[in-house]
Design brief:
By secondary structure, the protein is mainly alpha-helical. The protein folds into three domains: 6-33 and 389-423; 59-188 and 284-373, f41 fragment of flagellin, N-terminal domain, CATH 1.20.1330; 191-281, no CATH class. It has nine helices and eleven strands.
Length: 424
């Protein structure tokens, strides 16, 4: 019989270390359920496949999370719109009731009802979720509706400046609510002018829209008066490019017509009165929320506070709430109620359409969420097939390795006890 050599002992020791490593791997697989703790522990093809599947899963999970967040916002929008419908419906009932009643003070009664409706509707349009306003699009940090007291004060000033009567209030209030920044909505088409130094008599102002220029020589020396002169000149010279040009509290507000390619007016003169440096434009953030719901698919949802249905209703409410500022309001009450009922009906139908549109968007989101969640389950299953270990197989392999290790230890112990003296 041949006596073990040093090299044989080394080979046996190496075999034992290899078995120990395999046992450690098997033990890790049993405790974690994974074939390997790093991608290098998998084959090259399995490693690439696992990385690609996990990237797809991460994208699906991110889309699902975004959809869930948007679904929460849409639920709050739906709640607000439903309550706005109630406000509109209730005020319509109030109008009909006072139209047919013999109330001693119908104007006063409607004034109070309108004031209450304004407060409720303002709060609803200023609805927030997680600190984000829902009806101001991407500018979600800014309340879409100003404080009622501020808007009422400006509205009264607007009516007073225009010497509003029952015959003209309909159009005037529509322009006020539908087109002017800072009252009911944020319109990118609005420009507010300031001047430094103050304009002077005989200052020549050149203004340009879409490359077309016009000129005016001022006859006044205050910003307010100069704004009034400019407003008249703009409406006269650019009637096809400007829908409305108004002066509110001494400030000039300009609303461009649709189709104007460059919604900027350049002003300038030798004294820098109304220079480019003093022209401030409101931010162009005039769109609802937009969300990627699938690879290459984007969905827009939500509504802006300057939606016609909201502004039509606000026009009616603020007109009745400030009826004492309209010269012949009481005399023409019946006509005004009739006109208001028509606008209220249109507003209600518009909000009803919003609710329906939002419902369709919510259903689309729900369908995509289900699709992503189902596909995520499939991806997780495919990843598990690549990365997960068969627990029963791992336990069986561990036990086999354990037996091999015990046998190797016993054999090593026997061999190391052998000496030449045992065979003499």
């Amino acid at each position: 019989m041949r006596i073990s050599t040093i090299s044989q002992n080394h080979r046996i020791d190496a075999s034992i270390r290899n078995i120990q490593r395999e046992m450690a791997d098997a033990q890790s697989q049993i405790s974690t359920g994974k074939r390997a703790q790093v991608y290098s522990g998998l084959s090259a093809s399995d490693s690439r496949m696992s990385i690609n599947l996990r990237a797809d899963l991460e994208q699906r999970d991110s889309l699902s999370k975004s959809i869930k967040t948007s679904t929460t916002r849409m639920a709050a929008m739906d709640h607000a719109l439903t309550n706005i419908q109630s406000v509109i419906s209730n005020f319509r009932t109030d109008l009909i009731t006072h139209q047919n009643s013999m109330s001693e003070n119908p104007t006063g009664d409607l004034k109070k009802l309108a004031e209450n409706a304004i407060a409720v509707m303002t709060d609803l349009i200023n609805t927030k979720v997680d600190g984000r306003f829902l009806f101001n699009g991407f500018d979600s940090n800014t309340a879409p509706m100003r404080a009622v007291a501020d808007t009422s004060a400006d509205f009264v000033s607007f009516l007073t400046d225009q010497s509003a009567t029952a015959a003209t209030v309909d159009g005037l209030s529509a322009r006020f609510f539908g087109n002017h920044q800072g009252h009911v909505e944020r319109q990118p088409q609005t420009i507010e002018l300031t001047a430094a130094p103050n304009p002077g008599v005989n200052d020549t102002i050149t203004f340009t829209i879409d490359g077309v220029s016009s000129q005016i020589t001022l006859t006044s020396s205050t910003v307010s008066a100069a704004s009034t002169e400019l407003a008249a000149a703009l409406e006269a010279d650019f009637s096809a490019k400007i829908d409305a040009c108004d002066v509110i509290d001494g400030k000039l507000y300009i609303d461009f017509a649709s189709g104007v390619s460059n919604e900027v007016i350049s002003f300038g003169d030798g004294s820098d009165t109304f220079s480019d440096a003093s022209v401030s434009t409101s931010e162009i953030i005039d769109q609802p929320f937009s969300l990627m719901i699938a690879d290459g698919i984007t969905a827009d949802y939500g509504f802006m506070a300057h939606n016609d249905s909201f502004t039509d209703m606000m026009e009616v409410l603020y007109s009745f709430a400030n009826s004492d500022q309209i010269a012949d309001f009481d005399v023409n009450l019946e006509t005004l109620i009739g006109s208001a009922l028509s606008k209220v009906k249109t507003a209600f139908n518009g909000v009803n359409d919003m609710v329906g549109s939002l419902g369709a968007d919510r259903q689309l989101m729900a369908d995509k969420l289900t699709e992503h969640q189902d596909f995520s389950l499939l991806l997780q299953s495919q990843i598990a097939d690549i990365e997960d270990v068969d627990q029963a197989e791992a336990i069986g392999r561990f036990q086999t390795l354990q037996t091999q290790l015990q046998t190797s230890y016993q054999l090593t112990s026997i061999l190391r006890k052998l000496t030449l003296a045992d065979f003499i």
